[in-house]
Amino acid sequence: MVRFQIAEGVYENIITNLPSDEFSLEQIKHIYHLRWGQETSFRDLKHTIGTANFHSKSPEYIGFEILCRMTLYNFCTIITMEVPIKKRTGKWEYQVNLSMAIKICFEFLSDRMGPGSVNDLISRYILPIRPNRTYARQLRFQVPASYKFNAACDYIARKQ
């Protein structure tokens, strides 16, 4: 376990299997920084796409669900990279709202909308890029949801 200071009174803790006699604290910090894009992708895949909960119990079908969600994530990121963001006057640059882009792409793949409206709809949902912005980590207790509960929620959603 490695701990290093990232700001005055703020520390980052990292668990690693890198040997401490071969890697300095600065090298581990640099490697972690290089990996940050992968960490945010995993967060989006887990929470935005919904890979935290599964509809299946069988490992084979869970693997299939993960593969489908990874495909959806890759499709959405490719689409959002091509979306033109209109310049606004102000002090911020803007980026696509990935959560809304994923919902729009899912609707498109479900044949609920025409192909011409995807880029236009995604470009309507943009967020400002605010560098050096930090938030206190929100710790909250989460009860594990059972398979029966998820299946019941899906059934109710389909009936509406």
Q: What structural keywords apply?
A:
single chain; 160 residues; mainly alpha; two-stranded antiparallel sheet; 5 helices; 4 strands
Structural description of this entry:
The protein is mainly alpha-helical. The chain has helices spanning 25-48, 59-81, 98-109, 118-124, 147-159, and strands at 2-7, 10-14, 93-96, 126-129. Helix 2 (59-81) packs across helix 3. The radius of gyration is 20 Å and the shape is globular. The termini are far apart. The mean pLDDT is 77.
* Total number of helices: 5
Helix content: 40-55%
Number of strands: 4
- Hey, roughly how much beta strand do the residues contain? 5-15%
Alpha-beta classification: mainly alpha
Largest sheet geometry: 2 strands, antiparallel
Please tell me what the overall shape is. globular
In round numbers, the mean pLDDT is 77
Identify low-pLDDT runs. Answer: none
Query: Cα distance, first to last residue?
Result: 49 Å
- Biggest sheet strand order reads 1-2
Assembly type of the shown chains? single chain
Order of helices and strands: EEHHEHHEH
Radius of gyration: 20 Å
Itemize the secondary structure elements and their pairings:
Elements lengths: L1 E6 L2 E5 L10 H24 L10 H23 L11 E4 L1 H12 L8 H7 L1 E4 L17 H13 L1
Antiparallel strand pairs: 1-2, 3-4
Helix pairs in contact: 2-3
How is this structure best summarized?
By secondary structure, this protein is mainly alpha-helical. The chain has 5 helices and 4 strands; from the N terminus they run ββααβααβα.
